[in-house]
Amino acid sequence: MNAPEIAELEEQERRLTLPHFTHDDAWALGTLLVELARERRAPVAIDIRRGGQQLFHAALPGSTPDNDAWIDRKRRVVERYGCSSLLVGSRFRAKGTTFEDSSRLDPDAYAAHGGAFPIAVDGAGVIGTVVVSGLPQVEDHAMVVEALERFLAD
C-alpha cells in the first residue's frame, strides 16, 4: 500500500472534522476500530485521547508493549503539529529530508510514522488524537481514516 499524496492527506483532515466529540463518541469510535481490527485479525493497539485524558485504549491479540510506545511517540507528533503523523512525515520527505534528521525532536519521544490522526471538532480545532499501532504505517493510517469515515456516516 502506497502512502497517499500530501494533498490527499490534507483533504482527509478537512473532511474528517467532527461536529462534536464526547466520552461516548470516543467509546463508539474505539469499539469501531476494534471491530475493524478483529475482522482483519490485525495485531494492533488503539488509543483515543481528548486533551490530556485517555478515553479509550485497547490492545488486540498480537500487539505488544512496543505498540504502546509507538502510540505515545506518534500521538506527540499530532499534538505538536496539529495534523496526522503520516502527513508530518510526508512533508519532511517532500523537502528531501526526514523527520528524524530535521525536526530537532527526540526520536525516542516523537515518531512521524502513520497511524496517529487529529480529532478535530467544528469550531474548536484539534482537541484530541486517535492512534493505531501494529501494522505498517500506511495501513495504521488507513484504518484510522476508514473508522472516522464510518463514524461520521452514522
From TrEMBL:
Coiled-coil positions: none
Pfam families: HbpS-like
Membrane-spanning parts: none
SUPFAM superfamilies: GlcG-like (SSF143744)
HAMAP family in UniProt: UPF0303
NCBIfam families per the UniProt record, alphabetical: PRK02487.1-5
Family: Belongs to the UPF0303 family.
Name the UniProt record assigns to this protein: UPF0303 protein C4B68_25355
Lineage per the UniProt record: Bacteria, Bacillati, Actinomycetota, Actinomycetes, Kitasatosporales
